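In this supplementary section we document a worked example of the pipeline. Step one takes a protein sequence of length 208 as its only input; no multiple sequence alignment statistics are reported here. Step two produces a three-dimensional model, which step three serialises into structure tokens for compact storage. The input and output of this example are shown verbatim.
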Amino acid sequence: QPSPTLSAVLRFRLHLRGPEAPVGCFCPLHMEQFRQRAGQDIGREQLAEAALHGEPSPLRNVWLETIGDSLLQLASVIEIAVHAVNPATRLGLCAVMSHWSHEGVTMERLLRTLAGGTRPFLRTIGAPYWAKEPHQVGWIVEYTRLQAHWLRDLDVEVMAEGDTYPQSRFHCAAATLNAFNRGIRAAGIPGILQYGLHFSMSPGTEPG
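The serialised model returned by step three reads:
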């Protein structure tokens, strides 16, 4: 059955809303939802300060619930639309760091919402192109292992991020990708999503 993965842009962390709110979302729609849940008429800057700074607080909890429920709602819309066409299609997610920490929803809930009645799967975050020096591949493998460990008790298929972005041997050597592949295999991670083509450049750009 087809098994597409949703891009790592399925998150709020990417969509910056200004220097005072570099994570999450504080748009007018989410602000209105937050005010209804919290029962407070609070401004955007005041909420950003409470949600992103200092000790844990009830306001932060409500804000996280608000954006988390919004992300789950979007995932549910996608799942329903895809499975209306083909119920056997498996929908997975390309993870980013914020999925593990401050998107307002657990990774398990997000994956299972996307999966519907199919088996969930995840492409972890941590790729060969992160390595500025060859020896740095080691900690990237370890970060991938850590994510697999977090999912160890769940029925979730895990694959690593074999990305050499921007897919040029001049940026990330084939040996670096090979070292990452070997580390992933040694760790017992069953799969890897290899990126063979550049996202935007012409196929004729890389002839070698």
